[in-house]
Design a protein that fits this description.
single chain, 8-stranded mixed β-sheet, 26 strands
Length: about 800
């Protein structure tokens, strides 16, 4: 029986070659898209989940009350971890960690840049970064110890053997002893680093003295709760912890625990401190797209199968006449559908393997298609689901024919069946129109944020850290003076802020009339002479810092948002207090964006303090980038021997703020194209069905004098109406969806009418071309063939 069924399926595939290949293309494309999205979604869902104690591992976060609402921050006071570990019985381990930073590690004459952090002694007891050598209880117990990755060990020592106990120099200042080696941090970790030092050592450095105080917000804190501890109860217990511990009675900061592995996907909070999205939004978006594309592919299979049903009615009639039951026929047609689905799956796997490198380039991932249980089981499940979904309607439709009717050549199509097929095509095309609009809007918004004037000149702006000898003010000034004289350099200075995010904020500003309960943070830009000019910022009023004024280190410059927030009229010459010291306002800078366009422009101020700047920024003449960078490197090595020269371009870092949006734009473009392609196959299927059902009608009309153009219009008009209905349904839905997405940006494009008009026209043209091709083919058929009783 099975052999007979497979033989019949093979003969039907061979008989309807065109239908077979259209179905194969549609289903394999849909399955390939679904597999690619599955690989990406699965990878996103696994980030930070590899830690053995993941269910008890938490990050300490804070809700900070400001004038504009609640700001949810990742950082915590320096003493937080140690204090929680000592005082809270629910805590098994708790530590603080510095932010990740780039350092120079040196062994003999070898200098290597590496990313590192300084963390509490129980770091490796909490996190599952595998130690190749060393004991997790001891590797960070000594403040002069350092734990490096096996990859870094190979770079520094050309081996991982006998490395423990050796010394390594950090930034040519501090000597550390290697106490352990850990395996390279897995790609599924959201935090990538090459070494871990002791947090106790970091607290000793003079510039980190603030780590001792409860008022600071410059570190991260992590907690591992004991197995039976309840996180909600614990959060209620520590709500006033900072207030109690701080001498300044800090009341606007409420600490709480958030599951560590949840932050990667659920890292966005609204102004009320409520978790409101993050990367999970894109996981849900692309999962939905995958489902819709798969459904579109299944709809095509249904339409094409029912379109060819009239060619198989005698087969059904004869089988039923000799005793075949409906169940047998349903199993046969479902078997045909499942076989088609598995053939499509094989083709999809080849397509995925072919396009995966390009997909990785777009998504910034390093995905690999391993045919293992984690991939095979979902792939087979998707194929089975697709086969049953795609084959269910044709199987029920074809097997339901009455044997007497089919042997007489009569099939009565119900009103419901006709509108089911039409409804499916409307659904397909409506989704395609929504995707077209979405792609256009996302592209326009990304183009807007990339080209919008930010209030400063980011183009050809190079920046690099002040480390080693350059961190000393006297050498920094000499370096900057020589750098300004290099050919190709327009201007150069130093700053504490990289202009691409919240770098350093404070609420320690007081002015006449300030509400005592106000805790709004001002962004702190610590700059050297000429930094404002180097960035090309415009003054709204007043002046910038100048060497012509010897007291400018006691002055302050605000942005317009800061002045507006303070409510100061005629601000030049007025005095504010910063950290308890009087500062006179000498200038107001026009508003500029120092965070992404997702956020509004917040209050900010500039203060002159070359000793506390950390980055050199230099404007390079357009077209001279390569030669000028070589000159800067040569000068850098002269002032800073033993330190590798690494740099970034400000415009590239700014683009990185919108990496997620750029990936959405790129992927949406491909998915929209695929959805349109598959939808066209659906229209083609319905057009073929209509033409086949009206075969004799076409012949009669041609005998009676109807022109080919008239036949084309006759066959196309119904589908034009379906496409029009789909467009009418899709446009308001696409408006609501794109408007909702744009609300995530504080600065955004307006939804122009022509976005929707062009999407509708594009969809209609595609529909007309698709249906017109089939209609033209039908109109060219010889009427004799149409009227012959075959």
């Amino acid at each position: 029986m099975l052999r007979h069924t497979i033989l019949l399926i093979y003969r039907n595939f061979k008989r309807f070659k065109t239908t077979f290949f259209i179905n194969l293309i549609g289903l394999s494309s849909g399955l390939a898209c679904t597999l690619l999205i599955y690989l990406w979604v699965n990878d996103e869902l696994q980030v930070d989940k590899f830690h053995v104690k993941d269910d008890r591992l938490y990050r300490v976060m804070e809700h900070r009350l400001t004038d504009g609402g609640i700001w949810t921050a990742l950082t915590a006071p320096g003493p937080m971890g140690e204090s929680l570990a000592a005082e809270m019985p629910e805590v098994e381990y708790a530590i603080n960690s510095s932010p990740m930073n780039t350092y120079t590690l040196s062994v003999d004459e070898k200098n290597m840049q590496a990313t590192g952090r300084f963390a509490g002694k129980d770091f490796f007891n909490m996190f599952s970064y595998e130690l190749v050598q060393g004991n997790e209880n001891q590797v960070l117990s000594d403040k002069n110890s350092i734990v490096i990755s096996d990859e870094l060990a190979l770079k520094l020592f050309d081996t991982v053997e006998d490395v423990v106990g050796k010394s390594v120099e950090l930034d040519h200042k501090e000597v550390f002893q290697i106490s352990g080696i850990f395996k390279k941090v897995p790609a599924s970790s959201s935090e990538q680093f090459d070494f871990v030092g002791s947090f106790e050592k970091a607290k000793e450095w003079y510039w980190n003295s603030w780590l001792q105080y409860w008022g600071n917000t410059g570190t991260f804190a992590f907690v591992l709760l004991k197995p039976n501890a309840d996180v909600n109860t614990f959060n209620a217990k520590i709500a006033d912890y900072i207030k109690v511990k701080s001498k300044n009675n800090i009341t606007h900061r409420t600490p709480f625990l958030k599951k560590y592995s949840d932050h990667y996907l659920h890292g966005k909070y609204d102004e009320n401190g409520v978790q409101s999205g993050g990367r999970i939004t894109y996981v849900r978006l692309f999962s939905t797209i995958a489902v819709f594309i798969l459904i579109i592919a299944c709809i095509n299979f249904m339409n094409l199968s029912t379109a060819k049903a009239s060619g198989r009615i005698k087969e059904v009639g004869i089988k039923k006449a000799i005793g075949a039951g409906r169940k047998t026929l349903i199993l046969q047609y479902l078997g045909e559908s499942l076989l088609m689905s598995f053939l499509s799956l094989l083709a999809a796997i080849l397509i995925v393997d072919l396009f995966l490198p390009k997909f990785n380039l777009i998504t910034g991932k390093d995905l690999v298609l391993h045919l293992e249980k984690a991939v095979i089981i979902p792939a087979v499940a998707i194929a089975v689901f697709t086969g049953i979904l795609a084959g269910s309607y044709p199987a029920l439709f074809i097997s339901g024919f009455s044997p007497a009717s089919v042997l007489k050549g009569r099939i009565n199509t119900s009103f419901g069946e006709v509108w089911a097929r039409k409804g499916l095509v409307i659904f397909q095309f409506a989704l395609s129109v929504i995707l077209i609009v979405s792609v256009l809007v996302v592209y326009k918004q990304v183009e807007f944020v990339q080209s919008k004037y930010l209030g400063y000149d980011k183009d050809n702006m190079i920046y690099f850290p002040l480390v080693g000898e350059l961190s000393k003010t006297v050498h920094q000034e000499s370096f900057l003076n020589e750098m300004k004289n290099l050919p190709g350099i327009v201007n150069a200075s130093s700053t504490s802020n990289d202009m691409t995010g919240h770098n350093s904020g404070t609420n320690g500003i007081y002015w006449e009339g300030k509400d005592p309960d106000d805790r709004t943070e001002f962004e702190n830009f610590t700059v050297n002479y000429g930094m404002i000019e180097t960035l090309g910022m415009e003054m709204a009023t007043g002046r910038t810092f100048s060497k012509a004024y010897s007291t400018d280190t006691a002055k302050i410059i605000f942005n317009e948002a800061g002045i507006a927030f303070m409510g100061l009229k005629d601000p030049i010459g007025k005095t504010v207090k910063l950290w308890g010291k009087d500062r006179q306002i000498v200038g107001v800078i026009k508003n500029f964006h120092f965070e992404s366009l997702h956020k509004k422009i917040n209050p900010a101020f500039f203060r002159l303090d070359a000793d506390n700047t950390y980055l050199v920024m230099g404007k390079i003449s357009a077209g001279q980038e390569q030669e000028t960078i070589a000159r800067i490197e040569q000068l850098y090595r002269k002032f800073n021997p033993g330190f590798p020269f690494t740099f970034e371009f400000l415009d590239e870092e700014y683009k990185a703020l919108y990496a997620a949006e750029q990936r959405v734009a790129a992927l949406s473009k491909y998915f929209a194209g695929l959805a349109i392609l598959i939808s066209c196959l659906g229209l083609l299927g319905l057009a073929a069905f209509s033409a086949e059902r009206r075969f004799k009608e076409i012949g009669i009309r041609k005998v009676l004098g109807s022109s080919e153009l008239g036949i084309i219009y006759l066959l196309s008009s119904d589908f034009t109406k379906l496409a029009l209905v789909a467009i009418i349904i899709a446009l308001p839905l696409s408006y609501l969806m794109t408007q909702l997405w744009l609300e995530g940006f504080e600065f955004r494009i307006a939804l122009e009418w022509w976005y929707f008009m062009s999407a509708g026209v594009t969809a209609m043209v595609i529909a007309l071309l698709t249906v017109g091709t089939q209609a033209f083919k039908a109109a060219r058929v010889n009427p004799v063939r149409c009227l012959r009783n075959e």
